[in-house]
Amino acid sequence: MDEARLYGSIRDIVAGATAGEFPALALEDLLLTAFSRRSRLLRNIFDWGPDRYSEAERGSHETPTHFKWNLADLTAHGNRPVRVWLHQYRPPGELRPLYAQVPHNHRYPFVSIILNGGYRNDSYRPLENVLNPPQEAPEPPRSRTLRPGDVLTMHPLEVHRLADIQRETLTLLVQGAAVTDRSFSFRESTATWIAHRDMRAQFRTLRGIDVGAAD
What we know:
Layout: H1 3-15, H2 24-36, H3 38-46, H4 50-58, E1 61-62, E2 66-76, E3 80-89, E4 110-116, E5 119-124, E6 142-146, E7 151-154, E8 159-163, E9 170-175, E10 182-187, E11 192-197, H5 199-207
Helix pairs in contact: 1-2
């Protein structure tokens, strides 16, 4: 499966879904098909020319646990945004005990599949709503080890963390539209949950700073 066919199929699946629905099951089936042809897909990505690389680089960024390669920003029927990522996890010796390795939720739903390597996914009690963090520390998690070909689906109310990330782990991830302007993560050093706002929400706080009247 090449990139164009994958992204076209993702767009068609999202366009055919009921408004407001994230078609997780259909996307899981598509990612399993992509996994069966992953060598061709990855070779297609590894062989990007300068223009295609520059296009992907503009939307890609580094995190404490992995590099997020922005493969595609799609818009399905009804102006529904979909993002496709290749996550390249850091080697165990370079991982920082932050970000994906602490309990957290996401602003958006997503489906991902392990292409190479693997990790342990720890799941916690879900949030009661997407606007407020839990009032207590996470309870002991339910754990599942994911290996190549395994699929992980997450919704905004669900809380998880990643552990035991293997060397050269790669995942292919399809991200749906955000349903909230914030997410939360647990800071073990202070035993508190902290909020992470998207840039639009952060801009509202920026505009709220009193800088005096314009000259």
